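Slide 14.
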Amino acid sequence: MADLRTNFLGIKSPNPFWLASAPPTDKEYNVVRAFKAGWGGVVWKTLGEDPAVVNVNGPRYGAIHGPDRSLLGFNNIELITDRPLETNLREIKQVKRDWPDRALVVSLMVPCEEQNWIDILRRVEETEADGVELNFGCPHGMSERGMGSAVGQVPEYIEMVTRWCKQHTRMPVIVKLTPNITDIRNPARAAHAGGADAVSLINTINSIVSVDLDQMAPYPTIDGQGAHGGYCGPAVKPIALNMVAEIARDPQTHGLPISGIGGVTTWRDAAEFMALGAGTVQVCTAAMTYGFRIVEDLIDGLSDWMDEKGYTSVDEVVGRAVPKVTDWQRLNLNYVVKARIDQDACIKCGRCHIACEDTSHQAITAMKDGLRHFEVIDEECVGCNLCVSVCPVEDCITMEQITEGSDPRTGKPIDPNYANWTTHPNNPNRVPEAAE
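Slide 15: predicted structure.
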């Protein structure tokens, strides 16, 4: 049976599933319930200085739903903990004593002054927590006060504060990065330069999730007004995966441990983050949607998949896909595929034809001998796989590689050799091929 135990920066946990810094980790009661349910660790909701912040007394969340009311994206305008610092510290200390086998990391956010960080780090160390996570990602409320993403968007500040923290604590320092930036590699490099032991990402994305068309105000609406908030949930996973991969394959940050965050809902989501370099994954929206017991599905699913694939430990999965992440110009332009429709599985809905006919390459028939019949026209098919994406029947449409003969669309012989854009004759900046 697969061993799901993790050792992240020396922080041990029975599995890689941690609850992210958020409402589910705001107090002892929640965290104990989470540990009883089976979570491997938590990042305690972000602590700040006293007096505590004040949250709104009204709607804090908004959501984007699918047609079946499944939650696709989640928006929040909640700030860091609004409980007294001493209360949080006392509970953290008690939980760590009661649950020594679980990871307990404390998220922190204080003004960008060295003494402020020294003071709170000393107090957190007294709790015997396993580490700290520097919250440089919160995109609302705190950023207007010069904290959160206001720090995370300035690499020089990230490096400076990270260095302060490394100088003044023995605990591992994880830097939580904001996605509200053009190139995630720059803040990651800054964290690395400052001595960070790891990075975690992504935090939430700046967003207005919807508009109340009766009040003509953003939702969630507080007394007739709304504000931008942080977007998370399944919809942000592709953005998070890309950012994790960019850090994992960047020569300047390669090898820097990563805790992956962003839309993890299923074991497959977690496995994808780990394959791209994440040593642990943090979950929030899924727990808030389905409750703490969702971790049972995460554990069972990941364990079963690892057994099926022959992986014996989480370490064997972490980073396994990174070598296959490349830039577009390195993709093989001689690779040719065509769509294939399984006529036995086809339900004749016509979605593949409509999508291809209206918005793509007119490569799928609609009729044959006066009957509805959907078949690929190889002479027009570019292998874009739009039809696969819109088909409601799993595996009804697949992509088949053409390895011999000629491409029916171009008439050119199939070339088995690898060739990319950097040497293509249409590229005005092509690299000349070396003479033999």
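Speaker note: The first strand starts at residue 6 and ends at 8.
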